[in-house]
Amino acid sequence: MEVRATVGSDCLLSCVHPEREPFDLQDVYVYWQIDSTVVAYHIPQNNSSALADSRYQARAHLSPQSMEQGNFSLHLHNVTPQDTQKFTCLVFRKSWNMGRALNAVVTLRVAANFSLPVVNSSGTPQGQPLTFTCTSTDGYPQPKVYWINKTDNSVLDRALHNDTVSVNARGLYDVVSVLRVPWAPGTSVGCCIENVLLRQNLTGSGPAELSTGGSTDRITEHPDLPPRESSGALFGTVAAAGVAAGLGALCWVKRARCRRRNYTGAQVVAQEHELTDHA
């Protein structure tokens, strides 16, 4: 199973016995692990969490009431980028001579929304190459960056811009992209930050006339669809305010696909669609 969650949210990693038969908690041993790292566990007559890794002792727990019904799912609080891991659930029964009653693997993929890109340009003498700088912060995983010619909505050559991606103190990614293009009157460009895991594009627009500031647009598209279908099949639209808050409690299960070859440029949209939430 694959589970997706946003940074800071709470998430449930499922591990349920298929027959949902009753279990005696004095008869079962339950371990949630990442390789050899213990995330959470249940041992009869032992309420300690000392064996669990310190990164998870305060964030991961099992429900005794649920385990009695055959549900050994892990509750994980305050998800971080470092939780992008494969979690293994192991259940043994003492009455079976410690035979294995259940074995499940759950892959957790973590995402965070990037801030809306801000594009700035500096005054340049006529005839000299134009320079635009795009900045976006606090996203996860590492983004893809595109620059768009706003005149015809075409994607500019990758060789025209230099991207610098760094990890900040929160473990999230910040990106700065510098675009240099030949001078032309009324040049207008857009910087697009793509979060492949969220299947989300955000763009900031450069001014039509050079100035010391930039402007931002809210855009999104479904990368698998041509432009004429994009507005009807959005995986998610992010509002200009409260981006992180809007998805802060999101935990969903879905396998995403994103094929770069079908990218045809982001489309401005007016409506908003919420991401599905069916963990």
Describe this structure in words.
The protein is mostly beta strands. Helices cover 5% and strands 37% of the residues. It has 3 helices and 18 strands. The protein has a 6-stranded mixed β-sheet, with no helix packed on it. A 5-stranded antiparallel β-sheet has the order 12-11-15-16-17, with no helix packed on it. Strand 9 and strand 10 (130-139) form a beta hairpin. The protein is rod-shaped and about 85 Å long. It is a single-pass type I membrane protein.
Quick rundown:
With about 280 residues, this protein is mainly β. It is built from three helices and 18 strands. The strands form four sheets. The protein has a six-stranded mixed sheet with strand order 4-3-7-8-1-18, with no helix packed on it. A five-stranded antiparallel sheet has the order 12-11-15-16-17, with no helix packed on it.
Lateral arrangement of strands in the main beta sheet = 4-3-7-8-1-18
Q: What is the helix tally? A: 3
Report the portion of residues in β strands: 35-45%
The main pleated sheet reads as:
6 strands, mixed
User: What is the overall silhouette?
Assistant: rod-shaped
Helix content: under 10%
Oligomeric category: single chain
Radius of gyration: 24 Å
Q: Give the SSE string.
A: EEEEEHEEEEEEEEEEEEHHE
- Give the beta-strand count: 18
Give the end-to-end Cα distance, rounded to a whole number of Å. 11 Å
Uncertain segments? 209-279
Overall structural class, as computed from helix and strand content, comes to mainly beta
Provide mean pLDDT, rounded: 78
Domain Ig-like: 1-107, 117-211
Membrane topology: Single-pass type I membrane protein
Protein name: ICOS ligand
Biased composition (Basic and acidic residues): 218-227
